[in-house]
Every structure is written in C-alpha cells, then in structure tokens.
Amino acid sequence: MRIRWHGHSCFEFSNGETTIVIDPHDGRSLGIKPPVASANVVLMTHDHYDHNAARVIRGEHQNFLGFVGETEVRGGITIRGFSTFHDYAEGSERGPNSIYMFEMEGITVAHCGDLGCIPSDDVLEAIKGVDFLFVPVGEVYTLELPDVKKLIELVNPRITVPMHYMVGGLSFRLSSLDKFLEMIPDNAVDFIGNELEIAQSDLPDNKECWVFDH
C-alpha cells in the first residue's frame, strides 16, 4: 500500500487498483499547496471547506461526505463510517464528524477527520487495534492534547500519524506538531517523508508515531 500526505488532513491510499483520498482541501483557501492526486474514492469526514474539496481530485471518483454505515467500493474494499462529533458539545458547535475505517492489502486504517471529542464506546471498540490511526493534533478545532493521548491509549494502534496541525503558511492558527510530540517518547517517533510504500510484513512490532512531511 502506498500512503501519501497532501497536507493538513488530506491523505491518499493506493494499492494500484483502488486509490482513496480522504479530506481533500483546495490549498489556496488554507495558504498551503493543493493536493495533486487522482482517485477512485474520495472520503470527506465533514462538510467544512478544508476537508470537503472533492472537486480538486482528478479522475472519476465516488464521493462520500459524512458517511455513516458500511459500503463496498472499487476493488472490493469495505469502507466503514462511524458517527462522531467535531466538538465537545455533541456537534452543537461545529457539527458531526465521521471516522473512516478500511483495510487495504491487509493493513487497517482509521482516519479521525476533525474529531472533537472521545468517541462512543461502540466506535472505540470498532477501531481498536488498527494498524494506522490518523489523528488531529492541532487542538484549536479538535481534541485537546490530553484527550488525543487518551484516544491513542484507548484505540492502541500500531502506528499513530499526526495531522491537522500548524504548518508554515496556514491561514488559521493551530497548535504545533512539537507540542504533540512532547507526549511521545523520542525513540517511538519516525520522520518518514511525504510518501510511503508499506506491506503488512513491514509493520513494526512496537507502537510507533510516524510523521509525514509535505
């Protein structure tokens, strides 16, 4: 499986037959580079401009916005969407948010979008033990860092990937990546660049935090 980061919360996953892009943005509205990607499937965790720009992704793609439930897409991949909230007030401040989970080439992925509170026990049970957990760490519109830490402990993923944090040029303020990394042991952090090719057999035995660079 190939994983590529397109900045902010936008990630691309591909196995050669199926390409899934999650939470595309248009770049310009955020002050960062836009995604350059072609996909069969575009998943959007919620209807905010920095996560819902399916129009910038090339190709003929199925689009899912705030999807909750289970569906099969190209290549026989099952997408599961779980209902969560974008805030600590059951969505009354910023609305709903979906966590997306799927398996590609034997590797399980959960992308939390703009998760704003600890999910329900049912959702936690469903995503528990995934190989990759993509979690927002910028705090301002999403989980505060003590709850990020709690979420990681509850889900217990093999690999945690931080996203949605302050980068140069971003047009709104978020907490820095360094603030999140202060919670992670230095020997568990791996800086891996913009793109990664990984097979199930490559997954680490120990719990790690992998940082992508855009």
Give a brief outline of the structure.
By secondary structure, this protein is mainly beta. The protein has helices at 121-127, 145-155, 177-181; strands at 2-5, 11-14, 19-22, 41-44, 62-65, 69-73, 77-85, 96-104, 107-111, 132-136, 159-163, 189-193, 195-197, 208-212.
Strands, helices and their partners?
Elements (H helix, E strand, L loop, with lengths): L1 E4 L5 E4 L4 E4 L18 E4 L17 E4 L3 E5 L3 E9 L10 E9 L2 E5 L9 H7 L4 E5 L8 H11 L3 E5 L13 H5 L7 E5 L1 E3 L10 E5 L2
Parallel strand pairs: 3-4, 4-5, 9-10, 10-11, 11-14, 12-14
Antiparallel strand pairs: 1-2, 1-13, 2-3, 6-7, 7-8, 8-9
Tally of helical runs? 3
Looking at how many chains there are and whether they match, the oligomeric state comes to single chain
Based on CA inertia axes, which overall geometry fits? globular
Q: Rg from C-alpha positions?
A: 16 Å
Q: What percent of the residues sit in helical stretches (DSSP H or I)?
A: 10-25%
- State the major sheet: 8 strands, mixed
What is the topology, as strand order, of the major beta sheet?
A: 6-7-8-9-10-11-14-12
Gap between N and C termini, in Å? 18 Å
- Could you tell me the strand content as a percent range? 25-35%
Provide the residue-averaged pLDDT.
95
Poorly predicted regions? none
The string of secondary-structure elements, in order, is: EEEEEEEEEHEHEHEEE
Structural class computed from helices and strand pairing: mainly beta
Number of strands: 14
